[in-house]
């Protein structure tokens, strides 16, 4: 269905791509993109003036003539307000009226399309880049779409060396196994870019570039071999696209089928790996249970020994508290009976009978078998730092 001039949103590109980035300037690539979108909009509205709708509003006369089977576009005259009645029969008069109506509608439609496309184009770039085309009284209303495009192309559309290198680099991007359509597209876009400067790639160049990229990928050697065996007459750009696309589609189908098998094998392997992992975890849990049992027995033994040591310590402490003497074990007696004992051992024996106490001091118990910081039965206000030389008002029991 063709677009009507009264429904601007029905155009393929209601809003055109920007002619420039924010803070930047238009360039050949952006102008070409905008021109393509604008031409697609013009082609969507049927016209009685030629093929392909109203593309004569956006194309140069030469480009349109080549597209329109060699027929140039002749701008129509503004229809008279009233039909020119040709004398004759009623049928002749009726035909004059009908033709006038057709001419008026076609011209009015062309004007509406022109106005719509002009507004789209002006909106695609900042006003500063159009200002030279603005007329004093009617501003841009007197400018055609083609005049605005000519201004943009002549002022900002030069094909710079940097853009040429960028287009060439995009043309030579290697194919690494993705959709072959992307390779075909990059060749066509590069050809369009070069074509905007009058140096478009020929079909032979496009064809050879497609072959070169496919061959360099080494992904479809059979397709390349069969292409080389073709007669030269069957090696057009269209033939190349169709030939290599068929092989690419077959390649994708084979990969998809093998991928499905790989997926099933992968799932089976994953399940087996999970089973092994679960078995390993089970063994580790069992080993951990044995280790915990051993650790529990060890802890119980240590707890028992600790309780016995604590009871012995308390008994030792209570004996000191009752008698004020340090209880001597059999080992101590044996040591005292040892004739090789030193003066410390003799002092210990004499101290036990003469009332001379040892050097230890406790704030609560006075001179005893433990220091103040070691006391486990403390009176209120107990000072843990009290010593024999600094009793801090503590007990003087058995102290010299």
Please tell me about this protein's structure:
By secondary structure, the chain is mainly alpha-helical. The chain has three domains: 8-156, no CATH class; 165-323; 324-329 and 344-400, no CATH class. Helices cover 56% and strands 1% of the residues. The chain has helices spanning 28-43, 61-67, 90-123, 145-156, 161-171, 180-195, 203-217, 221-228, 237-323, 330-337, 343-354; strands at 361-362, 366-367. Strands 1-2 form a two-stranded antiparallel sheet. Strand 1 (361-362) and strand 2 form a beta hairpin. The termini are far apart.
Main attributes of the structure:
mainly alpha; 400 residues; two-stranded antiparallel ribbon
Kindly, what is the distance between the CA atoms of the first and last residues, rounded to a whole number of angstroms? 123 Å
Estimated helix fraction: 55-70%
Portion of residues in beta strands equals under 5%
Number of helices: 11
Low-confidence stretches: 328-358
The overall pLDDT, averaged over residues, is 81
Shape field: elongated
- Oligomer status: single chain
Provide the gyration radius in Å: 53 Å
Strand order of the largest sheet: 1-2
Main sheet: strands, sense, barrel: 2 strands, antiparallel
Number of domains: 3
Class per helix and strand makeup: mainly alpha
Please give the number of β-strands: 2
Order of helices and strands: HHHHHHHHHHHEE
SSE layout and pairing:
Layout: H1 28-43, H2 61-67, H3 90-123, H4 145-156, H5 161-171, H6 180-195, H7 203-217, H8 221-228, H9 237-323, H10 330-337, H11 343-354, E1 361-362, E2 366-367
Helix pairs in contact: 1-3, 5-6, 6-7, 7-9
